[in-house]
Amino acid sequence: MELDVLKELGNIGAGHAATSLSQLLGKEVNMTVPEVKIREIRNLFNEFITDIVAGVIVALQDLDEKKSGYLYIMFPEESSKKIANNLFGLGELDDEMYESTIMEVGNILSSAFCDASADFMGIILLPSPPSFAVDVPAAVVDSVVSQMAKKSDHVILFETSLSSDSDIEIYLALLPEPCLLKDIMKIMEQI
Amino acid sequence: MNSKILSISNKSGKAVFLTKRDVLVKSYCSLSSTCPSRDYCQSCDLIDAAKNYLMDGKANSGITTLDGELSAGIGEYQVRKKVLLEAMGLGSCVGVILFDMSTGICGIAHVLLPGASQKGETKYAETAIEKMLEDMVSQGVRKSKIVSKFAGGAQVFKHMNLEILKIGNRNAISVEETLIKYKIPILAKDVGGEVGRNVIFNPVDGSMIVKYTKGGVVWL
Asked: Smallest CA–CA separation between A47 and chain B, in Å?
């Protein structure tokens, strides 16, 4: 039950992120059917692609500044270059411009995600400013996982991907804290 | 067996080759930073030695086969003999290796958090090292013979807006303090930086092989 509701939250959030991406790029964006899974932390290495990706991590908080979870938006190298070039229409971007572009795209997508969860489900999630890293996802996500590992041996993963024109692909992962699940259930009971 | 793991060392350098059906699938080479063919191995002393061995199966000097590879998952440790030990995809995590060359028993831990656990959870640095140490001693290693190497604890975020993500440094410090506390000599370490690592331990010569996720291999 909790997982179904989480899937719905992710679905609505990711759907709106897809719309924002579509508006940003002026292109059609498709979203894959999302998946929710519970995984043991020790096996987490196998859950992610092993390529280097540009990644943006945003922490989500509720109104009491309690951590609700994390959004991790992954841009494979080719896609991130395409997106940056698409937005600027330039051939070559310097590193700094490219990085801040991807961070801003991550910011826009996570804000769309949070807006949707507030509008449609009444769940308030406030995104933190984005943090940016280029590396293999396993190495990026371990500092987030370490936060969750203090309380549990498992993590819940909501995953989906957004794609456009067959050459742009973005992976989106939501790692909720257990309290987010509780909050969702509380709100659902009131309806 | 279809897959073989060879550890080769000769005058020119050292390498570990992972082969499947006599085809080279992966290599960790101590010469890779100066090697003209980079990761795409073509031909050199080391490769020729490996090929000869695979063809005639004769044990040459400087070639040792290993009994497989084993990876420690996040927050786990593994203790084995004659097996290539791995801790993959380390960002803020630290790969800690304890080994004893006289018995050949070695262990690797994939440490996720600094400090110790009340419940004996091996995701914490201190607890992981303690348990791995106990495990090795119970398998017949004299504690005074154990030495250590470790790598990891990077800070992969280039633009960082969350304090809690700065955990790599704390992990590395916690590992080092624990090793000092248990008087285990530290033979090599490679910590910090901005790049993720894969840490591999070759039990044949006790080298820690650090493969950076963005390319580059060092033998320590």
From this structure: 11
CATH fit for domain A2-190, picks 3.20.20.110, 3.40.1780.10, 3.40.1550.10, 3.60.15.10: 3.40.1550.10
pLDDT digits (tens, 9 = 90+) for B87-104: 999 999 999 999 999 999
Rounded to whole angstroms, the Cα distance separating A53 from A51 reads 6
pLDDT tens track for A97-131 = 889 899 999 999 999 999 998 888 888 899 999 99
> Chain A contacts of B125, Cβ < 8 Å?
none
- The pTM (predicted TM-score) of the whole model is 0.90
Chain B touched by A14 (CB under 8 Å): no
User: In sequence order, what E strands does B14-133 have?
Assistant: 14-20, 23-29, 63-66, 69-71, 77-81, 84-90, 94-100, 105-111
Helix residue ranges, H only, chain A: 2-25, 77-88, 95-121, 137-149, 178-190
Class of the CATH domain delimited by B69-219: alpha beta
List the single residue in A136, A143, A146 with the smallest CB-CB distance to B89: A136
Q: Is B41 a catalytic residue?
A: no
Greater model confidence, A45 or B106: B106
ipTM score above 0.85: yes
CB–CB contact A139 B156 (8 Å): yes
Max distance between CA atoms of chain B, in angstroms, equals 57
